[in-house]
Protein: Steroid 5-alpha-reductase DET2
Organism: Picea sitchensis
Amino acid sequence: MAELDGHIAMDKNLYNRALKAMLAMAVATFIPTSFIKVPYGRHSRPGWGPSISPRLAWFLMESPTLWMSALLFPHGRMSSNPTSLILLMPFLAHYIHRCCIYPLRIRSGSKPLPISIAAMAFLFNTYNTYLQIRWISHYGNYTAGWLGSPMFIAGLLVFITGMIINLWADSVLLSLRRENEGYKIPRGGLFEYVSCPNYFGEIVEWLGWALMTWSLAGLSFFLYTAANLGPRAAVHHDWYHEQFPERYPKSRKALIPFVY
Ligand code: NDP
């Protein structure tokens, strides 16, 4: 019994430290990503080691979100709690798409991805899945009443809206990609307002998750996503202006319609 108590205390201690580190990382990520163009896709450049096909890279680096969930969730104290199971659904829906469907939709003309970048994303996804899944399956105390709370309902609506925007925008971009053809100016819908609606949708999704779970784990993931994709959207936006100096729409913002 004492041994079990020791394990529980150790896990709680590890979890709290990991959570604090994630919050710090969310803030810290903003600084390097504002100065360093993460070298994949249009910003690929030599010096980051060998690369692999983007399809394989996306599958491998996103895979911890699924196998870690399968390993961790059943061992949580709340694993058979219906509310925890319902909270698991949006997380899985996003990552089943990102890990298993999105890679298949990447066109053959897309740039190879450095193994070093894929390895960093793999580690991040392992770490973040531990935080999110351990929270909803073990440390979060969700009652059935939570599903009727304004936070849960608003969060779910925000998450679904973000996911629709993200899926739609990625579809438009993927359909523009043709082998032996360069990049094109995306047009239509939210692309008339911002350069990166796919990133905007992704950030909105994790804002919804933060509301739905009403947790520091969810908040830290939302902040990390914004800190990671916000600067990358600015870099994409500048790149479009450099590539299409005359033709790129001047009124278009980088990430948030009318704002940024
Ligand atoms: P990009 O917008 O850079 O690229 C998406 C795909 O579309 C790539 O295959 C790219 O080709 C192609 N593409 C993009 N723009 C054009 C264009 N103008 N003309 C032709 N083809 C184009 O997105 P990412 O690859 O950075 O991200 C993919 C998804 O992953 C997004 O939904 C994003 O939100 C998500 N993501 C989430 C992160 C998080 O922190 N939660 C981190 C990173 C990504 P190519 O690769 O050759 O450039």
